[in-house]
Amino acid sequence: MLGIFIRSYFDRRGIMDKKISVIIPIFNTEEFLHESIGSVINQTYKNIEIVIIDDASTQSCKQVITEMTNNDNRIITYELSDRRGVGAARNLGINKATGDYIYFLDSDDYIPETTLELLISNIKESSIITGLTKSINKMTADDLNLNEKETVIEENCFDLFKKMSALHLLIKRDFIKENNILFSEEVQFFSDLGFILPILAEKKSIPYVPDSIYYKRTRNDPITNPSLMQLDNEKQMVDFLNIYTHLKNTYKEKSYADRFLDHLFLNYYRRSIIVIMNSQEKIERYFNQLFISTKKLDFKNIPKQNPIINKELKAIKKNNKGRFSFLLKSHNWLSSLKTALSGRTKLLIYVYQNFLIKLPLKEKTIVFESFLGKNYSDSPKNIYEYMYKQNTDYKYIWIFNEKRNIPGPAKQIKRFSFSYYYYLATAKYWVSNSRLPLHLTKREGNVYLQTWHGTPLKKLVFDMNDIHSANPNYKLHFYKQSRRWDYLISANQYSSDIFRSAFKFEKEMLEYGYPRNDALHSKNKDEISKEIKQNLGIPLTKKVVLYAPTWRDDEFYSAGKYKFKLRLNLKKMKEELGDEYIILLRMHYFIANNIETDGVEDFAYNLSKYNDIADLYLISDILITDYSSVFFDYANLKRPILFYTYDLEKYRDTLRGFYINMENEVPGPLLMTSDEVIDSIKNINEVTEKYKYTYDQFYEKICGWEKGNATEQVVKRVFNV
Ligand code: C2G
Questions:
Q1: In the predicted model, is pLDDT for residue 147 greater than 60?
Q2: Does the CB atom of residue 586 touch ligand 1 within 6 A?
Q3: How much distance in Å is there from the Cα of 595 to the middle of ligand 1?
Q4: How confident is the model over 674-693, as a mean pLDDT?
Q5: What does DSSP assign to residue 645?
Q6: pTM given for the model
Q7: Which among 31, 379, 427, 533 is most buried, taking Cβ atoms within 10 Å?
Q8: What are the structural domains of the chain?
Q9: Does the CB atom of residue 587 touch ligand 1 within 6 A?
């Protein structure tokens, strides 16, 4: 509706006859092209040509480009045989463009459908106009909604170009030609500066339409598929210094542009150079380059600056490397001290990194943690119990959030307390089933045994396309955290293959089965089970159903605190099954809300806080789960499994994706309603019979390595006990 209105308005004003050339350089961004090129194709302003410069992308990317561009004759693609970089690609685009106006889009970004209309309808006599750029890490339907307002303000170029980007400028092609505006080709980074400076030399302000939006994607996988600015920061610095020096020479007579460059330099120095030059070695390597650039700096252009930085810049200008080095080190030391003093945890981290990891290494100390200190469980528990029962001379430390009643000689420490940092800094061994915080620098001599916490069904880390969870830095952080692992336990070949790709793990995989599953193969399962039931006060006369679902990435209160809505009709279950069964409710350890059992207390037992789910496997006769890895472990018992997958499509297609085909590879039925669950329990013998063949195949693939002695083998390999 709005599109039609704007179009007829254009027609009246004769704007529609102006053609816009949208230039899109592409280098291996196939997963984003449907969104980026698609967003241009769908623009409500139709008089456009799309100039694609394929900067020597891979075949798979070329294929997507062809698919995307085949049916639209407004698109022209130029292929470069060797990679020339974004600056050269855009220059080629300018050269080939035939439009009255030029617009640049990066191939991983996208624009709402009215973006170009809003720009061109407001450009009037100006030769250049821009709008608002927003950062975003994934596209949602809302991002593409039409804007209803159309305001224009004059914005000063100093502020507009602070981010050093030529994106989202609509600019007359004649203006580019007359002023000989080109991107810098000799640098890989900051090539936009060469384009921006001639504009700044001519203009102090340009019209700005805040309702015309450009979405700039923050890539969530800087390891496998980094954007340009996620690449090597030392190379970025060298490029910055080169281009700064070159442009200072070119624009010294243009005071506005000259002042802009010095401001950029100061900001870049504060934000990046100080961080990059964090060692004597780097100072030695880059000082001369820094000196050559800083010689060009005019202090009059940056009058009000921090006195510490002022002194450093003066030392560089005087070519006094020794003084600069002294000043920079004191500066960095002072800033880290300032950070340290800003809070208790920050202080402890500072003490850990600067002092504790320099204390002597305790060769015979092992620190254990399971599920982020939430309970005493999983493979770390089995490894610990096996070791202390062998009477070894190791000292054992367990990390918990709250004090626990646990067997054996272990010392308990509170997560994130001083002792936590002290023991993690000095213990030779770390044993954990999940990730440890990034700030725990791994010291020389440390051995980290990562037990992991499940055979994967849901796609993990680098096998996931997009991240729908609370933290957009997930992949980068995971990568850094997992570089510290020395050993990783895998329970089956299927997991080993996945861990190599999903975690990019290249060190030693321990392939003996899961220590946590040893108990499931124990000869006296029945006695152990009876004892557990008695301890829990569960009737010995009834059969037990265990419901253990996983968490949903998109349902959370805040990072790490997830919600779960119970979709089982407990009242009806009790009515229909209560004579024969009771049900144990076991929520995932991320779930923060309480599950209501009012009115069914003698049928439904909430054991979400219970230490170790392995005990619950042992005492149950049937498992109900969804996409949780619990079924891989439970299969060791060869007991019936039901899958209550009421949100299968959303979970599989939108949130995660799976490694196996749930429809025909899992050892039990996929059930969509609470009634179907009740029905399957009533007819459990038939269900078992029906799934026998699939179950046997599954058992072979997943449980084949498990012999009940994984703990012993892991301990022998890592601790030599
Ligand atoms: N778990 C539990 N109770 C639940 C769900 C899980 O005690 N209701 C425990 C089980 O030991 C399970 C582990 O937490 O194996 C991991 O849970 P998943 O539901 O599989 O989810 P997630 O923590 O995302 O781990 O490779 C495995 C994946 O990393 C999945």
A1: no
A2: yes
A3: 18
A4: 98
A5: -
A6: 0.85
A7: 379
A8: 2-228 (3.90.550.10), 236-342 (no CATH), 360-460+474-512 (3.40.50.11820), 517-702 (3.40.50.12580)
A9: yes
